[in-house]
Write a structure and sequence with these properties.
Layout lengths: L6 E12 L7 H15 L3 E7 L2 H11 L5 E5 L8 E5 L3 E8 L20 E8 L5 E8 L12 H18 L5 E7 L7 H10 L2 E2 H4 L2 E3 L29 E7 L3 E10 L17 E9 L12 H51 L10 H49 L1
Parallel strand pairs: 1-2, 7-8, 10-12
Antiparallel strand pairs: 1-13, 2-4, 3-4, 5-6, 6-7, 8-11, 9-11, 12-13
């Protein structure tokens, strides 16, 4: 019986930074991305931050000949920004929204990370091999490494993503994840994701690498990056990844990994503020199924889960304090409104000789109290949900730790 032929799968991953009206030279860069994808002929393209559906439609028309199968993941008011282009049929799709996506009153940067928080799944049939589970995603940005208020939320997202992969990859033979994870390779979130799922890092496993030093994808030399954010990292940072693993009777090896290095060929601008990541994977069926295994030893994984759970606990206590503060502010605003209502009723009933405040000041104070009540109530509800999500994740991690300790 002849061995089944191997498949060489070429993947392109890019955070496009295509925010309509805000991203510099957006339309020009989107056209450049489309031209390059047509010329290079990748098998699978994973794009993030394509916020304009018109940009996606333009790419779809341009790439129809090379990538006949595509999908744009629609979500919320402004969408998820995620899309996939494939040379192979897309068998099914699913969009998963993380339970925590940062703070609505702390939206930082042009991207507005709080609005989306997406993770997408696309089942892809790759010819001679079995189905491929492909995920394109973006986790919450860091913004400030020294005082990272979003770390607990990003850990919740990493945990939910890891659980999502474990529960949805059973029907696939190969799992492929690409996207802007907004985490450094040594961060607890990426260690948790890789350890809990067994995913391998294409950069670490690649036989041949070509591109920015250390595989960095956010570099100071890029004309679109904020140089001040990269002052602690003169070479740049690596936050965009291609991760993979084989589940059943397949082996996957990364033959080559490349990143772009600044300006696109023949142009004076890069594709985006992020560098693109391009991987060539060698997928081969082997004789016996290997089964699903964790990528690290149980004891080492338990340490990572413990570290992540500690950080989630810190976020939980901070959320509880914020819930208490917002609740207290709501009560004070309500009391102020009630006092004003009593004063107004007393004036109408003739209990007072005259209104103690001018009508305009009285009305402005009432509107101020009402606004404070609405705002504080909204914040209280938000932080209540945040507490529940963080507490739930902490409990899940505790159960995972118990299971790991029983196995070791």
């Amino acid at each position: 019986m002849e061995a089944e032929p191997a498949l060489r799968l070429r993947i392109f991953d890019l955070n496009c930074w295509a925010v309509r009206y805000l991203s510099r030279r957006r339309q020009e860069r989107v056209r450049l991305i489309g031209d390059t994808l047509c010329q290079e002929g990748f098998d699978l393209v994973l794009l993030q931050e394509v916020w304009s559906e018109q940009d996606y439609n333009d790419l779809k028309v341009k790439l129809a000949g090379c990538y006949p199968f595509s999908h744009y993941f629609r979500s919320g008011v402004i969408g998820s920004g995620l899309c996939v282009f494939s040379r192979f049929p897309i068998l099914d799709t699913l969009l998963y929204q993380y339970s925590l996506n940062g703070y609505p009153y702390m939206v930082s940067g042009v991207g507005g990370t709080w609005h989306h928080g997406p993770g997408s799944r696309a089942g892809v049939g790759v010819g001679v091999t079995a189905p491929l589970l492909s995920l394109s995603l973006q986790l919450h940005a860091e913004y400030c490494r020294d005082k990272d208020a979003y770390l607990p939320h990003r850990l919740v997202q990493a945990w939910e993503l890891a659980q999502f992969i474990r529960h949805t990859s059973k029907a696939a033979d190969v799992v492929l994840l690409g996207g802007d994870l907004n985490m450094h390779p040594e961060d607890v979130g990426i260690r948790l994701l890789r350890g809990w799922t067994g995913l391998q890092d294409a950069f670490a496993e690649a036989t041949h690498f070509e591109g920015c030093k250390n595989g960095c994808t956010l570099v100071p030399d890029n004309c679109f990056t904020d140089k001040s954010e990269l002052l602690p990292f003169p070479l740049g940072i690596r936050i965009d990844y291609i991760l993979y693993k084989a589940i059943s009777s397949f082996t996957v090896k990364c033959e080559e990994l490349k990143t772009t290095t600044g300006s696109a060929p023949g142009m004076d601008i890069p594709f985006s503020d992020h560098e693109a990541v391009m991987a060539t994977l060698h997928i081969q069926r082997q004789g016996q199924p290997v089964g699903a295994t964790l990528g690290t030893a149980d004891l080492a994984l338990a340490d990572v889960v413990t570290e992540a759970r500690t950080e989630v606990g810190v976020g939980l206590r901070a959320a509880q304090r914020q819930r208490y503060s917002s609740g207290r502010m709501a009560v004070l605003a309500l009391l102020l409104l009630l006092l004003q209502a009593v004063a107004a009723l007393g004036t109408l009933a003739g209990l007072g000789a005259e209104q103690p405040f001018p009508k305009l000041s009285f009305c402005l104070l009432a509107f101020l109290a009402l606004g404070a009540l609405v705002l504080a109530t909204g914040l209280h509800l938000f932080h209540t949900m945040e507490v529940k999500m963080l507490h739930g994740t902490e409990d899940q991690m505790w159960m995972a730790l118990q299971a790991l300790q029983e196995r070791s």
